[in-house]
Design a protein that fits this description.
This protein folds into two domains: 223 residues, 3-Layer(bab) Sandwich (Hsp33 domain); 47 residues, CBS domain Like (Alpha-Beta Complex), CATH 3.90.1280. 31% of the residues lie in helices and 31% in strands. The protein contains ten helices and 14 strands. Strands 1, 2, 8, 9, 10 and 11 form a six-stranded antiparallel sheet that branches. A six-stranded mixed sheet has the order 7-6-3-4-5-12, covered by helices on one side. It has a two-stranded antiparallel ribbon with strand order 13-14. Strand 6 and strand 7 form a beta hairpin. The longest helix is centred in the N-terminal third of the chain and has 17 residues. The radius of gyration is 21 Å and the shape is elongated. It starts with 7 loop residues before the first strand and ends in a 14-residue tail after the last helix.
């Protein structure tokens, strides 16, 4: 049995129906993310569901890389971002303005915001990005539409957030699966079974029990759990590259009276400090930035 108090990702198959799935639950990693800012409850709920979805969608990635989900300029929400790496490290944040009391109007902005899902393949150094318009306030429906439009892959997604946890369950039809071809009703059947689950079950019931309860007639094959943890991909080298992209004038304008420019990572609160000698090396072609201590 899995210890469902920990953060995990389970892959599984419904062999009779020709369907593959991923089940994710987050507790500690979600706590680290939500404690970075005093998020309004509605926005925290959206961020938790987005974080769970970013982990869900890495379930079938077979290479070293990362997947990120981003919605920008959606009404009072300036940014909703979550990322999960193939190594199981997660991070996320949101930016907003004003009061946010309900989710129904968050994405009603002009021009219409876009949902971007980006996959970075570190092995091939290639990036793939899919975009769909944000036409519904329900994140699960947005993600299902993304897979249908961008991947031509029938997908069902269920997300939940509450009681200090967030979770997600995703089903995808396996293209060309022999059992699915012989059973025309299989996809609709498992979709109805998924819809019978409650959000509370996603957040609290052990995966072995929940999947058997929902799909016991579909020959469930559950893979071993993969641990998930909060982790940030920031580094001094990446911050130096960011400063270089800003340009010398803007980087030097950030230098304080004590001669130091300080950059704080929004995801993990790590502080990177660059004095004038450091900045000179940032803008000197071919030179490495000297190592300096960072603070959390």
């Amino acid at each position: 049995m899995s210890d469902f108090t920990h953060d995990f990702l389970h892959r599984f198959e419904l062999e009779r129906a020709g369907v593959r799935g991923v089940f994710v639950r987050l507790a500690e990693s979600w706590r680290h993310v939500r404690e970075r800012a005093d998020y309004p409850p509605v926005l925290a709920d959206l961020l938790g569901r987005t974080l769970a979805a970013s982990a869900l969608f890495t379930g079938n990635i077979k290479f070293d890389g990362a997947l990120s989900i981003q919605i920008k300029q959606a009404g009072p929400v300036g940014l909703l971002f979550a990322e999960c790496g193939s190594d199981g490290r997660l991070r996320g944040l949101a930016r907003w303005q004003g009061d946010i009391a309900e989710s129904s109007g968050l994405f009603h902005a002009q021009p219409a915001p876009l949902l971007a899902i980006t996959i970075d393949n570190r092995e091939s150094n290639q990036r793939y990005q899919g975009l769909v318009p944000v036409e519904d306030a329900q994140l699960a429906i947005l993600f299902e539409r993304y897979f249908e439009r961008s991947e031509q892959l029938p997908t069902r997604v269920m997300l939940a957030c509450g009681d200090g946890r967030c979770a997600g369950l995703m089903l995808q039809r396996i293209p060309g699966h022999v059992h699915a071809d012989d059973d025309a009703d299989a996809w609709n059947r498992v979709g109805h079974l998924l819809a019978s689950a409650s959000e509370r079950e996603l957040l609290t019931v052990a995966p072995e029990i929940l999947l058997y309860r929902l799909f016991h007639e579909e020959s469930v094959r559950l893979h071993a759990a993969k641990p998930l943890v909060f982790g940030c991909s920031c580094s001094r080298e990446r911050v130096a590259a960011m400063l270089h992209s800003l340009g010398r004038a803007e980087a030097e304008a950030a230098v304080r009276e004590d001669g130091v420019a300080e950059v704080t990572c929004e995801f993990c609160n790590t502080q990177y400090r660059f004095d004038r000698v450091d900045l000179e090396q940032v803008f000197r072609s071919g030179q490495d930035v000297p190592v300096a201590p960072t603070q959390h």
